[in-house]
Amino acid sequence: MTSDAIWDTLSMATVEQVSGATPPSPATSTAKWARKDSPTPSKSQWNTKDLGKRLGVDVASAMTAGALTCPLITIIDRAIIEKASKGFPIQSTISTCLKSMLAKPSSFFLSTPFILIYTLYTSTYLTANTIDTITSTYRNQTYDTVTPGPAKFISTTTVNMAICVYKDARFAKIFGAPQQSQPQSQSQSQAQTSHLQAKYPYPKQHPSLRPPPPAPAPSATSAGPKIPLTSYTLFCLRDSVTIFASFNVPPLIAHLIPDFMASTPGTKAAVAQFSCPALMQFFSTPMHLLGLDLYNRQPVGGLSAGERIARIRRDYVPSCFARMGKIVPAYGVGGVVNVRMRAVLMGRLGENVYA
Fold first, then answer.
1. How far, rounded to the nearest angstrom, does the alpha carbon of residue 231 sit from its chain's CA centroid?
2. Which of 261, 250, 252, 277 minimizes the C-alpha distance to 332?
């Protein structure tokens, strides 16, 4: 065989080997070089890694946000109720309570009103955080995922309303208007007794002049009037719209804020978180005032609608801005602190997984 024939044979064999070689598939190459800690794991798996630590971050963020905001919220809430029930100026009540808190901090922070407020808002923050963690777990998303879905609204509203309605009932009894029925009945009884004593000089001549039996000890049920069902309904409706404006609306409208007001996504989210709960108070304050008025001036049908509307008009402007001063710390400052702290701590936990 000549050298040319040998060269032609080798060339044909080489061409056949090259043409018949099967290139590696993209999936094989990807699998070969895929990292075990890929940030986009399979959607069929739950992201349960560091779940205990993530729930701990939820608790720490909620408790920190509550501790920073609840002292001021407690004072403003008391001022609003005393304005509606007793007519006390809001500024005067706030000033007095601030001085009392600074003079006796232990008495303030261990008091029933503060404990109720702290339990209310910390539980609300914690519920929202837990829903985000649960959602990111079963959807296999990153640790710092935030969801504005209906599950968060229903859960946070249920927890907030259950505690807030109880808190409002306690606040109304603690700081509400005193009942005047008992002093009036005592004065009438004294007048009747004086008349009988003038007619019957000796006590034995008339049974009404005999010494009365000892009065029974006041029970818990007779300590004050009951909260009307209508007031409970108004409080629930008030809390529903506030929760919706605090946890669900801001993520939905943050991107709609114009750039001249906020240039970065983080700034837009903060503006939405502050403004939405505050603006909602123009709508929810009449519900709050009517619910308090139905409790303070019972029976519910004892006054005309015009009289109750006049009371709401009298207290609307100061109460509305006072409630803004309460809601902005609660769901503006508190909401931002809770969300930002959770995002930072969750990001640190996720660095070891998604690095």
1. 19
2. 277
